[in-house]
């Protein structure tokens, strides 16, 4: 049990325990000032079920968001030392399926872990799902770690090029916004697995963010299906140096594909924002119309 001794020494050095919510949140505050580990999340949607897949590597001490409701858990791979509310420790080894009560999971990953939280629902909006099932403490939003991620120079460069792009295409910002906000052609993502999530953007309004690592050339998500826009088609923001592009398929559907490697979640926070160059998207739309 050397791992437990080393971890307990680290926690006690900081004057914390793992037996109260306040103390755990104090540890979270300390940890958010450290370099964060990869914590890729994939969202799986089936008929009447949502599965949140989390992958964490060996050697990582992990504190999860507070789960509001009883739910099913499936640990598919790995081994974890789980720290319980009464101060005891349980060694959990995959495969294992169990139901957990509301609360927060705290664990030291011994072997690379793949974990699924399973919820009975037909909802596919990640914001709605997270507000329903997770309580994300305010400390996450106030952390220095998040502030370090906000690259205002890139933000301003993106906005400046957006204005140049409007002039190049001969359209106004109002026209682009009006078209973007049309609701009649908006549909949710279809059932399946996705490594993206819509959230507030430092570029403009809401944007599309990676929740798991995406490799160059990988399909990110469908953007347009049968002439209807998915969240990827609605919320992907503009950049002069995009990390993705729209690709027109033979049936005139449009998918979002990665131009470079895109980094996913770290330490429970969203990964990189996924961007495209609106010039390319505008020209692609013209190609789609021409093929009709």
Tell me what you see in this structure:
With 292 residues, this protein is of the alpha+beta class. The protein has two domains: 2-136, Jelly Rolls (Sandwich), CATH 2.60.120; 150-291, Beta-clip-like, CATH 2.170.270. It contains nine helices and 18 strands. The chain has helices at residues 2-13, 21-31, 126-133, 138-142, 144-149, 152-169, 173-180, 231-235, 278-291, and strands at 41-46, 49-56, 61-63, 66-67, 71-83, 89-93, 96-100, 106-119, 134-135, 192-194, 196-200, 206-210, 219-225, 228-229, 237-238, 244-248, 254-258, 273-276. Strands 1, 2, 3, 5, 6, 7, 8 and 10 form an eight-stranded antiparallel sheet that branches. β13 and β14 (228-229) form a beta hairpin. The radius of gyration is 21 Å and the shape is elongated. 25% of the residues are buried. Mean pLDDT is 81; it is low at 10-16, 142-150 and 288-292.
Task: Give helix and strand order, one letter per element, not per position.
Answer: HHEEEEEEEEHEHHHHEEEEEHEEEEH
The name of the CATH topology of the largest domain is Beta-clip-like
The main pleated sheet reads as: 8 strands, antiparallel
Mean pLDDT across the residues is 81
CATH homologous superfamily designation of the largest domain:
SET domain
Low-pLDDT residue intervals, each spanning 5 or more residues: 10-16, 142-150, 288-292
Estimated share of beta-strand residues: 25-35%
Q: Which architecture of the largest domain does the CATH hierarchy give at level 2?
A: Beta Complex
Separation of termini? 66 Å
| Shape summary | elongated
């Amino acid at each position: 049990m050397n791992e437990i001794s080393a971890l307990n020494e680290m926690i006690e050095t900081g004057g914390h325990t793992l037996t109260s919510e306040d103390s755990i949140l104090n540890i979270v505050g300390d940890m958010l000032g450290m370099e964060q580990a990869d914590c890729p999340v994939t969202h799986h949607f089936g008929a009447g079920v949502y599965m949140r897949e989390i992958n964490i590597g060996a050697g990582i001490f992990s504190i999860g968001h507070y789960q509001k409701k009883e739910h099913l858990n499936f640990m598919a791979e790995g081994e974890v030392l789980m720290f319980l509310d009464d101060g005891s420790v349980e060694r959990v080894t995959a495969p294992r399926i169990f139901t957990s009560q509301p609360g927060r999971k705290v664990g030291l990953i011994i072997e690379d872990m793949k974990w699924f939280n399973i919820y009975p629902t037909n909802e596919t909006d990640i914001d709605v799902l997270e507000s329903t099932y997770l309580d994300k403490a305010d400390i996450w939003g106030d952390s220095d770690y998040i502030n370090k991620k906000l690259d205002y120079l890139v933000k301003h460069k993106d906005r400046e090029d957006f204005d140049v792009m409007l002039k190049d295409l001969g359209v106004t910002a109002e026209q682009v916004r009006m078209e973007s906000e049309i609701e009649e052609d908006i549909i949710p993502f279809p059932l399946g697995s996705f490594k993206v999530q819509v959230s507030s953007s430092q570029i403009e309004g809401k944007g599309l963010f990676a929740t798991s690592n995406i490799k160059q050339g990988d399909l990110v998500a469908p953007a347009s299906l049968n002439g209807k826009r998915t969240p990827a088609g609605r919320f992907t923001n503009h950049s002069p140096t995009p990390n993705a592009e729209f690709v027109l398929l033979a049936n005139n559907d449009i998918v979002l594909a990665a131009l470079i490697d895109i980094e996913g979640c770290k330490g429970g926070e969203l990964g990189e924002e996924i961007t495209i160059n609106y010039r390319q998207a505008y020209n692609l739309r013209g190609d789609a119309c021409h093929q009709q």
